[in-house]
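re: the backbone from monday

yeah here it is again, tokenized this time
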């Protein structure tokens, strides 16, 4: 086999590894290296291939250097904080489920009671047999309807959501009275009205004197005389229909 001798001018540092192999003992080289090894060595000693090898090594070296410079630079920068989305402001409406003051409890109860008085008054106008009871029922529709509208306006100013229906107790009373007629209805209705207005007068008196909210307190004081008049009317009507108003 003919071996090509490398000229010293063709040797550079990058080919050092190949040269070390080529200058080994011929006996050892022939024994451990196949023919393909020499062909590969001859191929890489070809000048165009050597130039390409130099270019690839230069590119790789540049990438390594760039990485070494860029990593510390990026490492020194604090991470960009992620800002939490700004919550969309919502109207802070207090509901009847979570009263926050005695004044609001009063407003909620007054709203339900006022709606119940109107519904029961309409029932009395329709079903009562006594003119006195019919007149009382119509007065309830008129006066409590007006008070309800005033309370709604006050609640809107204070951003308070009022209940839209009566409570279970008043609904049960309405359903019970709706099954009655004549004198039986008159007695049961007026007995209920007498009891209700005794309670209402006491609650409105308390709010008008010890309420903390000036507007609610003023509304209670304004409405109280009307309720006191209703109580007197209920007492008179109960005498006419023959009940003391001790039962509801």
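seq for it, each position gets an aa:
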């Amino acid at each position: 086999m003919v071996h090509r001798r490398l000229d010293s001018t063709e040797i550079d540092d990058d080919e050092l590894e190949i040269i070390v192999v080529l200058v080994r003992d011929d006996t050892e080289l022939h024994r451990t290296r196949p023919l393909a090894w020499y062909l590969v060595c001859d191929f890489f000693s070809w000048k165009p291939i050597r130039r390409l090898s130099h270019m690839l090594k230069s590119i790789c070296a540049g990438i390594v250097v760039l990485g070494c410079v860029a990593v510390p630079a990026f490492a020194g920068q604090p991470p960009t904080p992620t800002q939490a989305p700004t919550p969309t402001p919502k109207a802070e409406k207090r509901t009847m489920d979570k009263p926050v003051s005695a004044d609001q409890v009063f407003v909620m109860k007054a709203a339900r009671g006022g709606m119940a008085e109107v519904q029961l008054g309409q029932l009395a106008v329709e079903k009562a047999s006594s003119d006195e009871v019919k007149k009382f029922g119509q007065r309830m529709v008129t006066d409590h309807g007006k008070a309800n509208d005033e309370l709604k306006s006050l609640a809107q100013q204070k951003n308070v959501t009022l209940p839209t229906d009566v409570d279970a107790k008043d609904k049960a009373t309405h359903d019970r009275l709706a099954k009655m007629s004549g004198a039986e209805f008159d007695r049961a209705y007026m007995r209920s009205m007498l009891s209700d207005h005794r309670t209402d007068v006491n609650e409105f008196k308390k709010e008008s004197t010890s309420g903390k909210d000036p507007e609610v307190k003023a509304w209670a004081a304004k409405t109280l005389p009307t309720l006191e008049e209703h109580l007197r009317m209920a007492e008179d009507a109960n005498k006419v229909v023959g009940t003391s108003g001790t039962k509801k």
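The chain has nine helices and no strands. The CA atoms of residues 68 and 75 lie 11 Å apart.
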